[in-house]
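Record now logged underneath.
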Amino acid sequence: MIAGSIAQFGLLLLGLSDGYVLGVNLLLIVVLPATISRLILWFIEQLPSANMYAYMLGCGFIGAILSVIVSATVLIGLSFWPGAELLHASLANIAPYLFMLAFPEGFLNGTVVTAATVFAPDIVRTFNEDKYLSR
């Protein structure tokens, strides 16, 4: 969350983002995806058996897809806020493509998490080698 917040403030300082939407951007781009990823990790850690594939697919693939879908759903919900008619009109055109946007995000994140877990498991902070690779 710290890195995402620094990135959002950097975009603000560079003039690539407006200050009046900083809170919404932090919520949609930083807080919600991090929270969803953490909840999925918690759920996977609660499984009775330590399955490395559940970790890689759950944390990488499903976590990214759910993050995109939930963030977009919250954005669509915020578009019904009074005074956001222009946002609501533009989101109505994007909503049908939501799942087409979510799958590539999930695929790329799943690929990166899988590759990092297999080739360099020590760089994946939440991966516990003793739990998932013990015989």
User: Anything to note?
Assistant: Residues 40 and 58 are 7 Å apart (CA to CA). The chain has a mean pLDDT of 85. The chain has six helices and no strands.
